[in-house]
Amino acid sequence: MSADSTRTAFRTCPLCEATCGLEITVGPGEQIVRIRGDRDDVFSHGFICPKGSTLKQLHEDPDRLRRPLVKRDGVHVEVSWEEAWRAVHEGLTGVIARHGREALAAYVGNPNAHNLGASTHNSVWLKALGSRNRFSASTVDQVPKHVAGGLMFGTAQSIPVPDLDRTDYLLMLGANPHASNGSLCTAPDFPGRLGAIRARGGRIVVVDPRRTRTAEESDEWVAIRPGTDGLFLAAILNVLYAEDLVSVESRIAVILNGLVDLGRSVARFTPESVADATDVAAPTIRRIARELAAAPTAAVYGRIGVNAVEFGSLNAWLIDAINVVTGNIDSPGGAMFTLPATGSSTTRGTPGKGKGFSTGRGHSRVSKRPEVLGEYPTAVMAEEITTPGVGRIRGLVTVAGNPVVSTQNATRLDEALADLEFMVSVDIYLNETTRHADVVLPAPSALEKDHFDVALYTYAVRNIANYSPPVLQRDSGQPDEWEILATLAAILQGAGPDADPVAVDDVMIQTMVGSSVATPGSPVFGRDVDEILVALSRDGRRGSVRVLDLLLQTGPYGAAFGANPGGLSVDELILNPHGIDLGALEPRLPEALRTPSGRIELAPPALVADLDRLAAFAETVDPDQMLLVGRRDLKSNNSWMHNLRVLMKGSLACTAHLHPDDAARLGIIDGGYARITSRVGSVDIAVEVTDAVRPGVVSVPHGWGHGARGTRMSVAVEKPGVNSNILTDEAVVDPLSGNGVLSAIPVSVEAVHIAG
Q1: If DSSP codes are grouped into helix, strand and coil, which group holds residue 447?
Q2: pLDDT higher than threshold 60 for residue 234
Q3: What is the reported pTM?
Q4: Is residue 569 part of a domain?
Q5: How far apart, in whole angstroms, are the C-alpha atoms of residue 184 and residue 78?
Q6: 303-317 pLDDT tens trace
Q7: In a domain, 694, yes or no
Q8: Most buried of the four, 288, 295, 458, 552, by CB within 10 Å?
Q9: Which residues of 722-741 are buried (b: 16+ CB within 10 A; e: fewer)?
């Protein structure tokens, strides 16, 4: 194609969980001319939010790193890739030589779930790390969902999603998809899908301390006191049992354990007993329970607002317990299990039965927090770095993460990172976290990478497959993301600074193919390994696309390397640039179960036991205590998006929302300033007085607090805001999952004068 010609490329937006299709016009000189929604995308049908069109600005951002950085005399300077890898080799091997591999740690950030290279190749360097000190953004976000799903259905990926397109009644707690576009529920145009529920005569009830845009567009807003959702949910279950409204279809009843046990366990949580603590009237709780039971189809959905609290795992369990006992689990219009094209732990192994889910295979060194999903809570990172002793973290690898902004007690973690002996980061920005790194390795631009949402399609409201080749060629000398991660793995394995990522990739794919052909039930069971390797590697394919092809071909719809003509493969998806719709969600139980019993465990002992803690908590709720909750804006998903000027325009700002009654009592005016203080920190912040929050609540958005010395985010520092995680307490976590508590934080609020 001529350099002066114009072409159109299609790809999936990687900036949030909605996976919207984009139509990208590339003009002369390979310049991005226009980005708009792909009207022919099989999932998003042209929908696009303000973030999707900013991939051009992200690609062209002068602050986006294009060459590796090495810190010299406290200042980051650009170096060649060869020099950067030598610094990585010397730094990591030095830590290992002085302290052993257990002195190394890893932190993996949220964007990894949105990047194909990270999805396919993170595992290889994490294994090569040789340390149990693994952390990720999951423990400030979603681990409670994995714990509850694992204990009930058998795997960490056993998370049912609300069947939005067919439900008649949706109860949402702690979720604001009008701003987030959905989370652990992949659904392009989530707001439009909600509107369609009401248009067809359905009902939406939102339970949230804030009158969010989602609440405004619902049929009912229940302004619950932050942190008390578990009491509300337990009371819903109490009503269903007490009024004989439990209804489980026969197909589910024969694979269900614990129905009676659950009823006994919630008997003490009557609506009247929780009304004062939740500030939700008993008649309201009873009515909602009855509405759920009476609706032809219904689904309960909860997200970060009910996961990032002290009872995150309990809340996730109670939500799906309600879905079960109202007859809405694994049923159209209820909460259903996706059948992802690349497969998952719910598609592999013996259908209907498995080894189940467990935690606590290890414990953190200092606080003895249990392992969950092979990681420790981010809440313990700082103490693991600063506390002397064998196993103290001395070296850290971060990939696409900014925990100094996104995790608890940010001040303490910021200080801890400065105490490390060596740190290497894979990131596109020099941000509040990576400024501490001795080496920063930049990944390619989002437009220079191929894309497939391995993780996000696992929780989609339809079964979808959509592969996007790179839109633009990578800059000269820029390695692909998978090559960076594979080289990192090779260095950790002892291959030296000149390690070949291709060799690592070849061993990785050979191991994966060997496992597939040796696994009974696999579509390539018994096949020749070399035959499949040749098929995967034709046309010189390597890296992420080769791994993806294997996952697709051996997945539930796969071509199986010729055994299933017309089945899925990368080649088939390339022929379908707008994606392939594999159909609406269908019932998957019992085959999707992987519990040892082969049954749904409705009353897992660990979760039932935690109800005692919930009951004790109800007695301690102080109605006069101010509570801090978070907030998300449609234009602000992750902290690095604050460096895109087009997203920072207009109303986007870091302010505290305060109810008029609280503002009057505290003597704070709209546009004035408040000092918010928690056990661990204090911030001064501009205030918006609004009745969009209930009394007793102060809401501060996450992802702000820019301008630290050593960062290079020139747009973000123009509107720095404050870091809400200066206020969150690393000592308080959900004990079952280790998830951080980022909402319902006890705080004091007072008026302050900021000199203008």
Answers
A1: helix
A2: yes
A3: 0.97
A4: yes
A5: 38
A6: 999 999 999 999 999
A7: yes
A8: 552
A9: bbbbbbbbbebbbbbbbbbb
